[in-house]
Amino acid sequence: MDERTDEINGITLHSYTSGDPGGAPVVFLHGFPEWGGAWKAQLRYLAARGCYCVAPDQRGYGQSSKPRGIRSYTTPTLAADIAGLIGCLGTGPVTLVGHDWGGGVAWEVARRRPDLVRRLVILNMPHPDAIRQVLRENGAQRRKSWYIAFFQLPLLPEACCSAFGYRLLRRTLQRSVRRGTFSESDLNRYRDAWAQPGALRGMLHWYRALRYHRPAPFTVALPTLLLWGRRDAFLEPANAALSLARCTQGTLRYFDNATHWLHHEEPEAVSEAILGFIREC
After folding, report:
1. Coil, helix or strand for 242?
2. Model confidence over 180-194: pLDDT tens digits?
3. Strands 220-229 and 247-255
4. What strand order describes the sheet that includes 2-8?
5. Residue 94, strand partner residues
6. Which domains are assigned to the chain?
7. Is the pLDDT of residue 281 over 80?
């Protein structure tokens, strides 16, 4: 993978890149608690098949800027970062791929700047309208979402997450993924990303900033592919179908044996699905 740095929206955004800049542009958005390099399998696969792939460390993560203020991490601000990055690429509209929180940003970019997105691919992240409905109606989802309130507390989440060599974050990954998916080397790379100065605070500010943004209901008119691991420890299956209902050109594909981390557990199948979607649209 190569790397690039862009000055965007008042911050520095660091990205991993792969492939010919003249190829079909694909932008990958990671979630919590990952970083741009977590998409390495998809970048290599798609770049080898003619795509130009870009995976930023989103603000607060990795080698990108980490502003101190909570309001610097509202979803519209995060979406403006990605809109600015797409503009810097100079490729025209892109295929935008997002997982977890990266999917939340991708939904927002699709809402605010559909002119910048040719196709939308979402991995295990509900449409905002869908998750609000599921939280209202589904007690199991409310129980699974307990950590969101915890992460919004001041200082304590940073202390708990960083204690004993980031043991809480390591164990959360290990216990919510298929056995053997993450090697010790992989987990050490995660630890290095979390240990970047200001990173843990910035990562948690994404959750704290939720109080400052509540989007109005919206429908996505772009071609949209939802890829969903059925064994997600954090999200109830109802989120998938309800998200599909908010897309006028949507397709939903389940991965029956995958968890929340399907792009790591099924890297080739996920990459093939993204490439097939790019070629058919």
Report:
1. helix
2. 999 999 999 999 999
3. parallel
4. 2-8, 11-18, 51-56, 24-29, 94-99, 117-123, 220-229, 247-255
5. 117
6. 2-280 (3.40.50.1820)
7. no
**H or E stretch including 55?**
strand 51-56
Cα 104–142–172 angle (5° rounding)? 70
Amino acid identity, residue 107?
W
Instruction: Report whether pLDDT(220) > 80.
Output: yes
- Angstrom distance (rounded) from CA 270 to CA 75: 26
User: Tokens 């603000």 — which residue?
Assistant: 59
Answer yes or no: are the C-beta atoms of 230 and 261 closer than 8 Å: no
Residue 52, both tokens: 């130009």
Residues involved in catalysis? 100, 207, 260
Over its C-alpha atoms, the chain yields an Rg (Å, rounded) of 17
Residue with tokens 């290095």: 192
Q: For residue 137, count other CB atoms closer than 10 A to its CB.
A: 12
H/E stretch holding 236 = none
pLDDT digit string (tens) for 64-101?
Answer: 999 999 999 999 999 999 999 999 999 999 999 999 99
Tell me whether strands 94-99 and 51-56 are parallel, antiparallel or unpaired.
unpaired
Tell me which residue of 51, 48, 45, 36 sits closest to 3, measured CA to CA. 36
Count of residues making up the chain: 281
Q: Which residue has the tokens 């097939």?
A: 276
**CB of 75 closer than 8 Å to CB of 105:** yes
